[in-house]
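Re: that chain you flagged

S.,

Sorry for the slow reply, it's been a week of failed gels. I finally had a moment to sit down with the sequence you sent. For the record, here it is as I used it:
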Amino acid sequence: MASESSFDIVSKIDLQEVDNAVNQTQKMILTRYDLKGSKCKVSFDRKENKIQINADDKMKHQAVSDILKERVASRNISLKSLKWQDKEQALDGTVQQKIELQMGIPAETAKEITQMIRELKLKVQPQIQSDQVRVTSKSKDDLQTVIALLKEKELSIPLQFSNFR
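Prediction finished late last night. Pasting the structure tokens below so you have them in one place:
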């Protein structure tokens, strides 16, 4: 009798890597010629999982956000996991923007993933478990087919596969 095999589909971010990317961005702001002497600043709030960019004007804000994107990508964090909110004009004339970190799989996306898996007509059972999706099957080949399908699909969040059993 074959035992059940399973894996979890998750969307996680290494917060230490985000912190490193923000620190590298801040160092780059201090050394770049076009940003020297400006009030540009990037900060990371671990408790709320948010990054905030403050800049003197829109042009400097664009430069800082480009540096941040470059640093985040170099730390192997998907840019899909950053949810950019609208830019706001602060009272002192500066521009600020908050960036939310997308942790976990939202319910709508989880339903979309389970629907895609069910459409394959394989003998697998996807289950939504809070912010992750567990896929179980007796055949490891079917599980590998599911992983291959999900890697091909363009979803709004980055996916990782973990907890293979």
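What I noticed first: Strands lie at 5-10, 41-45, 50-55, 82-84, 88-89, 95-101, 124-129, 132-137, 160-162.

Talk soon,
D.
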